[in-house]
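Good day; I would like, with your permission, to put a structural problem before you. A protein sequence and the structure tokens that stand for its backbone fold form the material at issue. I would ask you to consider whether the tokens describe a fold that such a sequence might reasonably adopt. I set the record out below, with my sincere thanks for your time.
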Amino acid sequence: PIAGSMVLAAVLLKLGGYGIIRMTPTNISTPLIYPTIAMATWGIIMTGLTCLRKTDLKALIAYSSVGHMGLVASATLIQTPWSTSGAIILMVAHGLTSSMLFCLANMLYERTNTRMLITMRGMQKAMPLMTTYWLIASLTNLALPPTINLIGEIQIMTTLFNWSSLTIMMTAMGTVITAIYSLQMFMTSQQGHLTKDSKEVYPAQTRELLILILHALPILLLTLNSELIH
């Protein structure tokens, strides 16, 4: 259910990250950190590559969440104030972004009765206002400057690089792949010609726009003043 997906992405997944921060010992030995961070950063790339070939919109957004939480898991293991701060910022930002993407995906599903990306093309012509929210969600998902997502990712990537310069290859590649599949998701679902089954799609309703505004407004406010998180 879409409500479960939104709660999972926005709340429960962040409770897991908070649990990692609280339960990770401050004196964890280095031999344990290396393989764990290596798996987490490698998972960012693998989930990103999986998103590139996903045709199910909801599955694509779910795998994207896993990739972003790989950055959070890596940062929490280093246990520095800078990494912990970056992990908290990214968790809050991604909670809003991922929940918004799940909500948008469900709105398309209610109108097309399918989650396949190829059958959702051309939605900009049917629902131009909702395309604006798709653009906001997609750009924040790929951490466009100066969004709050970028601040969290930059802090985490900087901390990982200071800890080990080899991690920059994994995190940089993961960032590029995230940008590719986020833009691909937006272009595939919004651009192009409407399919025959999509020509009778009804426009966005007021309650749906209110839900989207309640996601987009905190993202904008936190982007203007990220100190609100602390």
